[in-house]
Structures are given as structure tokens and as C-alpha cells.
Amino acid sequence: MPWQKVKTILKKSLSASVYALWLEPIRGVQADDTLLELICPDQFFASWVSEHYLPLIQESLALAGHSGITARCALRPNNNQAIIANDSGAQLRLPCVPEQQRSTIRTLHPRYTFDEFMVGDSNAMAHSACSSLAGGDTSLGRCLYIDAGTGLGKSHLTHAVAHHVTTHTPSLRLQYLTAQQLTSEMVRAIKGNTMEQFKDKFQKHCDMLLIEDVQALSGRVKTQNELADAFDILMESGKTIVLTGGVAPRDIPNIDEGIRSRFSSGLVTSINSPDLHTRVIILKRKAQNKDLALDDELIIYLAESIRGDVRQLESAVIGLKAKSCLMKTPPDMTMAKEVVRNLIGHQVELSAESVRDFVARQFKVAVSDLRSKSRKKSITFPRQVAMYLARKHTEQALSDIGGAFNRDHSTVVHSVRVISEGVTRNGSIRGQLEHLSDKLKKELL
Fold first, then answer.
1. Which domains can be identified in the chain, with CATH numbers?
2. CB–CB of 365/382 below 8 Å?
3. What is the pLDDT along the chain (445 residues), one digit of tens a residue?
4. Three-state DSSP class for residue 35
């Protein structure tokens, strides 16, 4: 059959991991003498193969002596099912996973890999921990909890872990799902009287457990109990657990204190909003991936205008690409401003002055007091907090921040150092700063 010949050629020309990930799962069906249909697992898979490998497949057909046959990607009829038959009628395995492997993973985004993850100060710890665990290094512990808001990269990192594991250690039994999927699976097991198989899956047939969005377990007592049992067994047997949530473990409502304690038993780290430098790097990579040429002025404008959500940065690049193609002109500042306006509407500019006024309201002190020469603790502490938050949440220079308080840049440096040390040593100060930061984001960003 032509497809078998093509696979033989491709296996020699592609790396083993690429071949196993993108070519092995395809089932070739010759519709007639001129058409070879490549049956793919899902629409995303078919689109990716069409874009990246179809020309190579067509060349391989010619090399195999079938130049008159055209290849095209297609889906299996009624393609709702996750299982697709191969030419022999046997079930296809997950890419790179041996037949005896009993793993369950979500559909992985092909670009959510460690190579594509842009590392900055806001996410360096989470990236390092995930990279270490994926590579088998447990020096940071075997349990990791990542909390991050929407669009900051926690799903990218868990996908990257799964990509790395399935490619480099396919014999490792990986279970990767969301908390909602875990709950749904347990409900089906209860209804189908298959709870023993459900328990065995996560307690006996698992070497690495990845669960996303664990805040969805709030109020689900039965699921929490089952997860706690699996958690204990996996940790006692030296397995690896990676969890992600929209909030820190201590802030998940309606959750058993025992499961909260387990979530916090290993390394707990956050992914914060990327700073300006990281946003610039992300935009450059996204533009490169889309074959879009953006000059530095446009990159800086987008990075300064769009904060907090990496997905919005990607949306901006896609929007510019679409407008550029439609108008058949290179991207310019007018296009960029229109894209930003469509994404975030009226832009609120966060400044040292707005942070200062916010802190004054929270501590119930006058703005004039924060700008005065008063050394009273009731004034100096809010002033130092305001300078710390302004340094953290704005891109303004130290001198500009100091100007908002009638101080010079050295006072800002001193204030940032004092509050940073207080956050490290004093849980009360740390709690106050986290609360103020969250409230500042909600009110002003």
C-alpha cells in the first residue's frame, strides 16, 4: 500500500520523536487511484499535519513511485471518539507510548513545550520546577503546586511536562487531566459500579499525576476524599504530582483541610504577570511563529499596552497578522492601536500616583501625609508599602516613583528593601502585601 511505503521513507528522514508523534497515529486509506486519505485523530492534528508535513508526504509519495496520487488529511466519520483504528484494526496507542503503557493524557498543544515557554522573573521558579520534575530530578521535591491567573502559562507548563515525558520517558505511566474531568470520571465509575478500576488507575497504575484547575474541587467532598487517598499512596511510593490552580491552596473555598494540607506539602509557587521585558520577548516569539515582521516600536507599544494575560499578547499578534494580510500592507502603529483598542478597550495607565492614592485610601491616611516629611510609623509604613507596590506594578523609573512622594530614588530603593525583607520574615506583612496587590489589580488594572 502507498501509505506503508511513505511511512518507511518518512521514518528514515524524520527524528524518531517527530515520527512517533505526528506520523505513526495516521491511518492511510486509498480512496481511489488518485487520492490517499490520511485519517487523523482530530481536527487540530489534521490541521497541524497539513501545514507542516503534507508537502513532505507528497514528496515521499513521488519517491515511492506514486506521483499520480494526491494526499490529503481527513477525519474519521463521526470523529467524536478518542480511539481510532489502524490498518490492522487494532487500537492506536498514544504517540510515543508503549503498548503496555496505561496512561491518560489530555490532547496536547504542539507548541506548549519548554522550548516555546518564555522565561522571566514572573515564572522562573515554576518553569524550573516543572523542567526538573519532567526530567526526573526530584531535588525540589516530588509534589509541585502552581497557582496563576488566566492566561499566565500554567497550562503551557503542564503540557510541556507531558510532552517531555511522552517523548523522553514513554514507559512512565502518566495521568493528566483537569479536576473537572477527574470528577466526571469518578461519577461515571460510581454509576457503572467500576470504582475499583477508577481507584487502581490513580493509585496503582500511575507514576506521574498532573491535575489542572484543582480549585474546581471546591465543594466536591467525594472527589476530594478519593484524591486524598491517591495522593497519599503516590507520595508514599515516591511518585510525582503536579497540580495547578487559579488560587493558592490556602484560598480554595469549601475544601477539606486535609486535602489543602496535601496540596501545600511540596513546593508551592506562583506565576505572576510578566514584566515589560518578558512581554517583549513573548511578543517577538509569537510574531516569529506567525511569520510576522514587527519593528521594535510596535513591539514596545504592544508590550506596554497589554499587561497581565499572555493570551492577549498572542491575540494581538494574530490580529495584526490578519489586518496586515487583509490590507496587504506591513503592520503599522495605526493597526496596532486598533488591535489594542479591540482587545482591552479604554486603556487604564497605572502610575506611581494612582498606586499612592490607592494605598492612602486603604490605610486611611491623607495623600499629603505620604508626601510630607513625617517619620511617624503610621505614615512611613504606608509610604514604604506604596513605593514597593509602585515599583512592582509599574514600569516607571525610580526617580519618577520617588517624585510621587516628594522623595528621591534612594528613598524608593530603601523602601523596597525594607518591605521585601518584611515580606520574607513577617507573615503578617506578607499577607497584607498579597491582599493589597490583589485588590490593586482588581481596582486599577
1. 2-75 (3.30.300.180), 124-271 (3.40.50.300), 276-344 (1.10.8.60), 352-444 (1.10.1750.10)
2. yes
3. 788 888 888 888 888 777 888 888 888 888 777 888 888 887 777 877 887 888 888 888 888 888 888 888 887 655 433 333 333 334 334 444 444 444 556 678 888 999 989 888 889 999 999 999 999 998 888 999 999 888 889 999 999 999 999 888 888 899 999 999 999 999 999 999 999 999 999 888 899 999 999 999 999 999 999 999 999 999 999 999 999 999 899 989 899 999 999 999 999 999 988 888 888 999 999 998 888 999 998 998 888 888 767 888 888 999 898 888 888 899 999 988 888 888 876 555 678 998 998 999 999 999 999 999 999 999 999 999 999 999 988 878 888 899 999 999 999 999 999 999 998 888 889 889 988 988 887 766 5
4. strand
**CA quadruple 37, 43, 49, 50: dihedral positive or negative?**
positive
User: Largest alpha-carbon pair distance within the chain?
Assistant: 89
Is the separation of the CB atoms in 59 and 71 below 8 Å? no
